[in-house]
Write a structure and sequence with these properties.
Blueprint (H helix, E strand, L loop, with lengths): L4 H10 L7 H6 L2 E5 L16 E3 L2 E2 L9 E4 L5 E3 L8 E10 L8 E5 L13 E8 L2 E8 L9 E8 L5 E8 L2 E7 L2 E7 L11 E2 L16 E10 L5 H9 L3
Antiparallel strand pairs: 1-15, 2-5, 3-4, 4-15, 5-14, 6-11, 6-15, 7-8, 7-14, 8-9, 9-10, 11-12, 12-13
Length: 244
């Protein structure tokens, strides 16, 4: 279920980014591509350059680069835009170091951890904990109360392994979650709530109140991509296969 760091490092030394596939990505509604090779610049052509704070740029050890988060609120990448999508997808590689009971380690989101308004937690991809393992979780809210309206989960992620993960939704259609070939899908008949929070990697966009301090990702995030379309299993498999 996981790629070894040695394998990923060997692949990454052969090419820093997937060769010959940039046009394929652009034609399929790529909204942002952050390789995270020493900076948070966007290579999609959209100009959505992020701002990194608190963490450490990693070189050589993981896909040739990446950003290392220490689980605190001070480590994050602000992607610098707040666009709300009716159809959305996201993929990246992660190397999680730890997750413990009661913590929700955020990978990507535009939420307030402790909501100040019902619309403050539309979409979150995060790492939860169960019985000694990580649980990849997508949480969606339609914003009419302070509860999430859909959870998708993939269980049994062992720490200190590399995972290619992704999630997606299309309003009035369905939602999906992906991890190293494993795929979950469910109907999503609602509209994801909207707000003005920026998209963030590595922690809540607004770590407020009781959630502050226990929502930061602990590990490395690399090769982040965002799309304005729904991702089917074949889409995840295609992107994942670029690195195989």
């Amino acid at each position: 279920m996981s790629l070894s760091r040695r394998h990923i490092n060997r692949v990454r030394t052969q090419f820093l980014r997937p060769r010959g596939k940039r046009h394929w990505m652009a034609l399929h509604k790529l909204e942002g591509y952050w390789p995270l090779d020493g900076n948070a610049n966007d290579f999609s052509g959209k100009g959505r350059h992020g701002t990194a704070a608190g963490g450490v740029w990693v070189t050589g050890a993981f896909l040739g680069g990446g950003y290392e988060f220490d689980s605190g609120d001070s480590d994050y990448i602000n992607l610098g835009f707040s666009q709300n999508f009716t159809e959305w997808g996201f993929t990246c590689f992660i190397l999680p170091y730890s997750v413990v009971s009661g913590e929700k380690r955020i990978i990507v989101n535009k939420v307030s951890y402790f909501a100040t308004f019902p619309t403050d937690f539309p979409v979150t991809l995060r790492m939860d904990y169960e019985n000694g393992y990580g649980v990849l979780c997508l949480a969606l809210s339609k914003g009419d109360d302070y509860n999430h309206d859909l959870f998708l989960r993939i269980y049994g992620l062992q720490m200190n392994n590399v995972f290619f993960v992704g999630c997606s939704y299309k309003d009035g259609y369905k939602a999906s979650l992906y991890c190293n070939g494993l795929f979950q899908e469910a109907p999503w008949v609602y509209t994801v709530s909207t707000n003005t929070r920026n998209w963030y990697l590595g922690r809540a966009s607004y770590p407020y109140g009781g959630g502050a301090g226990n929502n930061g990702f602990h590990g490395i995030i690399d090769e982040a991509r965002m799309f304005s379309r729904y991702l089917e299993k074949v889409d995840y498999d295609t992107i994942y296969g670029l690195y195989a």
